[in-house]
Give the backbone structure.
Amino acid sequence: MPLSPKPLPAEQSSKALMARVWRQYLKPRRAQLGTALLCAAVVALTTVILVGWLASAVNLLFHSAGQDFITRNLPAFIKADPLLWVPLIFIVATLVRFAAQRGLTVTLNQIGNELVGQIQSQLFGRLVHADLGRLQSTHSGGHLSSVLYDADLVREAASASLVQYVQALLIIIGSLANMVGMDWSMTIAVLVVAPLIAAVMGRYLKLTRKAAQGAMAETSTLSTAIMESLDGIKIVKISNREADEEARVGEVIERRQRFLIKGANARSMAAPATEVLTGLFLAGLIAYAGWRGADGHLTAGALLSFLLALGTASQSLRQLAGLQGNFSQGLAAARRLFAALDVEPEIVNRADARPLPRDFKAIAFDHAAFGYDPAQPVLKDVDFTVRAGETVALVGPSGSGKSTLLNLIPRFFDLTSGDIRFDSLSHRDIGLRSLRDRIALVTQDPFLFDDTIRANIAYGRPDAGDAEIERAARDAAAHDFIMELPHGYATRAGEAGSRLSGGQKQRIAIARAFLKDAPLLLLDEATSALDTQSEIKVQQALERLMTGRTTFVVAHRLSTVRHADHILVLDKGEIVERGNHDSLMRAGGLYARLAATQFAAQPQEAS
């Protein structure tokens, strides 16, 4: 079974992406979307009415001999008192437009925020359930970029831009109808020029799309660079590399800015280019309108209304050009979004998965092999059995596969060949939740959430009572220092436990393991990063924790594993020696050489 992450799904076409956005995010909100579209239609209609009514208003107020359709068909009472009714009609239309615009804004805000929340929840849910190999193949900054930025871009394109597009299109159609009513010959001239304007907008749209894709890629890189620098801030400062990190992030910002500027320039040029073409055309149009007016075929009100309708249509065309850029960014974001959502985890429960009994009798590695890349195995033909309640220590040079072997037991990764069995039950036939319920893990650098000490201890058992939490803390030699904290068990640990020392964090992690009370314990370099005083306290707590549990210990310090029931010595992914401390020392092999090196170095370490 290959372990390397599956390739991302094939890139979807723009049409398929839009269909999927509609199906997953907009269709369930079609009632709200319909309300928004109705409000947009009312805004468009009242805009067109206000512009179209202007010709009749001018003709009525100045007693022009206008012959436009609206003036001829107005009720007599409006014609009799235009000073009252003309302003009143403008006021009513303006108030209706305001109400529709307000309804549109409120509805779009609701749709957009709900959509962002849904996308972000889906993305985080997919990430938190993803295989460890998949998560480790992409920096966390890339995941953060998708959750924070891609969701907003999809929202902008899928809700606000869509409705605004429909609104602008309706205004253009209504304005054209107004223009035909005023003078059909001038309208034909406008329609002849329109394809040229559309071609100019299309050119800038292509530039906008390319810039949007580049900017999104650099946004992900920027998130990664910033998080990496902040995560390693101690190393940065001790190495006096602040300026270098600032320059490194600055380079990414500069590349991103270049794409953003290209996109902004392309979007901003679309409007002026349209305006230039429109202005040139308008000059000719005015000359033609003057000739039509001199012959009595065009009134002053009709000309004013025609020009306003043309201006309104031009403004909506410019808005459409800008919205095309939003659609391009939204589609690029949707492409990345769905690529992340479509990756299914490989490590899943089988249909007939069974629970793991707490009282299993043995764990057997049966010719197990593993490789992040199957062509380059990290572990080869690992074969051994551990009885329940025994301790097995994994020893060997760095990179020999010790921690990797440990990660295979809770199925953080899946074997490429072979098996791991609990009694006669293959670990692939065990439900993941049941398997991991039976395991407690203490690592070299335990992770604590920025929550209370109580919550961190109870993370594996959130229903535990205060008495159980305190008992676990006492067993882990943590209760005394916890009570010295400003708020005791209610003290917050800080980001990643930053308010606690290394030894204190380690004892909180051990208390968490005590509270979980799992029959299988995994210790991955649990004391290697501690000072001598902290190590003694932590080692004593670990010895209490290991009592009665099946324990796997990974350690560089051989003094911590000399009492293990079994010691497996790994080198280049293979078990090269096995036995207990005394037998391995007598054998004079790799274990004895490692022990001699460490014990010879101990006086220097103490000095």
In short: Residues 445-517 form a domain with the Rossmann fold fold (CATH 3.40.50.300).
